[in-house]
Design a protein that fits this description.
Elements: H1 2-14, H2 53-59, H3 73-83, H4 87-105, E1 149-154, E2 163-167, E3 170-171, E4 183-186, E5 211-214, E6 238-247, E7 255-265, E8 276-283, E9 295-299, E10 310-315, E11 322-334, E12 342-350, E13 359-368, E14 373-374, E15 385-388, E16 396-400, E17 404-405, E18 412-415, E19 419-426, E20 435-441, E21 450-451, E22 455-457, E23 462-464, E24 466-467, E25 471-474, E26 483-485, E27 491-499, E28 502-513, E29 519-520, E30 523-526, E31 532-537, E32 541-545, E33 557-560, E34 566-573, E35 579-589, E36 595-596, E37 599-602, E38 607-612, E39 616-619, E40 627-630, E41 636-644, E42 647-658, E43 664-665, E44 680-681
Parallel strand pairs: 3-4, 22-28, 30-35, 37-42
Antiparallel strand pairs: 1-2, 1-6, 4-5, 5-13, 6-12, 7-11, 7-13, 8-9, 8-12, 10-11, 14-15, 15-18, 16-19, 17-18, 19-20, 21-24, 23-26, 25-27, 27-28, 29-31, 31-33, 32-34, 34-35, 36-38, 38-40, 39-41, 41-42, 43-44
Helix pairs in contact: 3-4
Amino acid sequence: MKIFLLKCIFLGICTFFFCTGKAQEKPSALRFSGFVGHFPSLPTNEKVAAVPLSRIKQECFFYKGDSLLGFDFDKESAAIQQDFSLYYEYKVIMMRIQKKFVMDKYHIQVPSNQMQSNSSFSERGAPPSTLASACNNLDFENGNFTNWTVKKGYNNNSNAALTTSGAGSTSTNQSALTTCKDVNIITAAYGNDPAGGSGYPGLDPSGGSYSVLMGGYNYNQSGAGACSANGGLFDGANGEVLSQTFLVSAGVNDLFSYDYMVFLNDGGHSNGQQPYFQVIVKNASTGVILSSCTQYSVQIQSGVAPAGFSKIGYTNSSDGTSIYACNWVSNSINLVPFVGQNITVQFTTAGCTGGAHPAWAYVDARCAAAQVTVSSTSPCVGTTGILTAPPVNGGTYAWSGPAIVGPTTSQSISVNASGTYSVAITPPQGGACTYTLSKNITFNPTPTVTVNNPTICNGGTATLTANGATTYTWTGGSTSNPYNVSPSSNASYTVIGANGTCTNTAVSLVTVNPMPTLTVNSASVCSSSGGAALTASGASTYSWSPATGLSATTGASVIANPPSTTVYTVTGTTGGGCTSTATSTVTIAATPTVAVTNSVICSNTKVVLTASGASSYTWSTGGSISTVTVLPTSTTNYTVVGANGTCTASAVATVSVITNPTVTVSNANVCSGTSGVLTASGANTYTWSTSATGANL
């Protein structure tokens, strides 16, 4: 029992000691092989066939006492040498076989920190955490490993899951290929992979600002002294598991993409012993891989380059074995069928089981919505809409639909009619992984916009009315409909009519006709006259008002003979329908009643003629006052024209001239006291000095 306990202690503490019982340290100096590069020193290149059997048995019994009693060293040694020619690897494998023999012999359970990982590579009893957010740092764009789980482990079987031994170490300082960290953040400053050289960039060309280096040339070898402080020695090549679990949400993160660049050192071993790289995407709860399209695993085969790999110029300086590289490869996974489920994405890298041949990889990931997007949610008839499939690096597209304009095999297409359009996306994994996304697009009709073309007179207002759309925007920004404008000259106005996002335009031409400039005369007439002629000009047609005293109510000229002074309005209209007005005043003046007296005078007698009834007078004699003195020699008519303003009347005065008589009287002789008769003659009437009248006195 004492020996058993000692062996249990030895197993727990010294499991990875080499034959000498002392940890073998890996030299820190660099050695080079092939092209000039930055390869660290590898385990010694001593061949097991060259080592004496006595030395082998002296150095390669790892357990003391009777722990290995019953162990067939020669048989196991011969079997190991079938696959492992390096003495370094021989010792690693012999140590592991002896460890298993002892553990089986004494029924020792595997320590919890060294159990083979389950399919999710999480520690026993620790379920993976699930991100509630879309793809928080799935693409490492935080520049760190937030939300990622890192495990370290060792490779017992390249066809089985890595045996994890605890949390892995991380670095965000772009450690070189000889890093002693399990995973390292890489940026553009890192440059090319030191082994691959030009054309093998550490930063994913299809990714963002960060990618990740898993493992390294030193780290993915067993017993690397340069890295012993970072986790101790292992009985197999170092390996790393990088994983994240998240909830798949529709239209948020249901398209998952990952890229990788892998380097594998062909150790010439059998299948199951070689370095490998693996990617799986699985159900987080059941551990079941989602489909054949959600996994990729590559193990180098002896002397054969895996598909997509090519031999680079560097070799392993321990034994001259070749290193093969697969440059950046993109993969895309449609997670739409797994919406509502928690899924885990997991990357694994490990060197060969013997520990002398490393593997390392650069990885990147991202998520997006598995949706077809459209350039416009409401495209218009007569335009084209752009449908864009999600980006799939290295994938192909095949579109179908009712009205595709142009190529049908690009990420984006142009369409010009309503309908459902589908795109079959074939990711780099191949045709078996093709998935189809669809998008329905509806083209809205473009409105037919009409607008009136009014004619107005200068100074007037035009009402523009558009039809055929839902909303309208006019030149100047107004959204009123109808829209009133008052241009001073001919003008055009553009209106944009919209039905949603679909628009069309129309132009209204506003014709501005000049206003007529009317002229019309005024007049004064006498009450007894026949009226006055009124004449208007400056328009095409005319109308007069009021009608009282007018000879007509239309026409350019009318006769106005109102009973009293009247103001007439004439409205002139141009051929364009523009009107203006002018006024004419017809003043009615009273016609005078002129009176003058007739006179009878004796020859050689002057007479004064006096006219009345007017304001001014004009006599036929030339006089211009109301009275005139005449001395006719015979009976004469005198005419006087009396005027009140422009209104005149005339009267005639007759001056009769009577010839003076020649009177004779008889003489009479009478006696005193007697009477006599005096007889006058030569006249018609007589007046005697005695005042008596008659011809006889």
